[in-house]
Amino acid sequence: MTGEPMITTQDLAKWYGQLRAVDGIDLDVRAGDVYGFLGANGSGKTTTVRMLLGLVLPTSGSVQLLGERMPRAARRVLPRVGALIEGPAHHGHLSGRANLTLLDAAGPGGSRRTRRTRVDTVLEQVGLSGVGRRPVKVYSLGMRQRLGLAGALLRRPELLVLDEPTNGLDPQGIHEIRDLLLELHRGGTTVFLSSHLLAEVEQLCTRVGVLDRGRLVLQDDLATLTAPTGATVVETPDPERVRAVLDGRVVSVDAVRAVVRGDPAEVNAVLVAAGVPVTGLALQRPTLEEVVLAAAGTSADRVDAPGERSRR
């Protein structure tokens, strides 16, 4: 594994009375990762993220952020971290620009002379440069989410920690935020993205962790998790003939395809020689959804519901 440690937890746990929200997890996020933190309703994602940032104290275990112990080193570490957790909080009667100006003024280390430039830059990045003086109270949910992301970007963070950053956005907005995060990553920002959207994580992330009922049941590179299985998917109008010719090697069959153990070229040669019509061949690769369901059970791709807050 390459890259300096950005987020490390050891046996991290959080109990609320008899409720075990987070159950001894060991996160490993390195510089250069786009880390997708997946979990179903009630899995404990937001509780974990809040512990990472020192907003909630763990019952047991430890957190290191950028190589330093949290929350002890929060004053040194957090200025280097951008975060958007459980939706942004804003002054509704003020404009987006005014909100960001106040946020920048309250933070450490930013030059007053360059404040306007910083605010204008992040508004442009998130697609809010044209909002003018409209108060935030008239913003849509998606616009508020963009403004929250702009606030997380003010300090050009080394590490960006985001909890459901595309909440409330339309498909175009989701695409724009995805492109922005990829651009930030190319510029050297490490991204930790908590989400329940499998498609979003699969398109964006290089590394994945899956939380199930407070336990980290999976953590690996996305490329490793979705690597070829050693089988070939054969598209054919006659899958039963594939079964007959390659008896013993057929893993599964449906109406238009068969999954066969073996290399595509070799499988194709055998089928063509036997006169079996083949319309397509591809290496079998598991989808992220299949990997997550295998690790966490059938509820792993459910959309988070309001009830999750009782366990997060």
H/E element sequence: EEEEHEEHEHHHEHEHEEHEHEEHEH
- Proportion of residues in helical segments: 25-40%
Oligomer: single chain
Q: Give the CATH architecture of the largest domain.
A: 3-Layer(aba) Sandwich
Q: Provide the domain count.
A: 2
Strand order of the largest sheet: 7-8-9-4-10-11
How big is the Rg?
A: 23 Å
Shape: elongated
* Range of strand content: 25-35%
Question: What's a concise summary of this model?
Answer:
The chain has 312 residues and is α/β, with parallel strands linked by helices. The protein is built from 11 helices and 15 strands.
Can you describe this structure?
The chain is α/β, with parallel strands linked by helices. It folds into 2 domains: 5-225 and 289-310, 3-Layer(aba) Sandwich (Rossmann fold); 231-284, no CATH class. 32% of the residues lie in helices and 27% in strands. The protein has 11 helices and 15 strands. The strands form 3 sheets. The chain has a 6-stranded mixed sheet, with helices on both faces. Strands 1, 2, 3, 5 and 6 form a 5-stranded antiparallel sheet that branches. A 4-stranded antiparallel sheet has the order 13-14-12-15, covered by helices on one side. Residues 299-312 have low confidence and may be disordered.
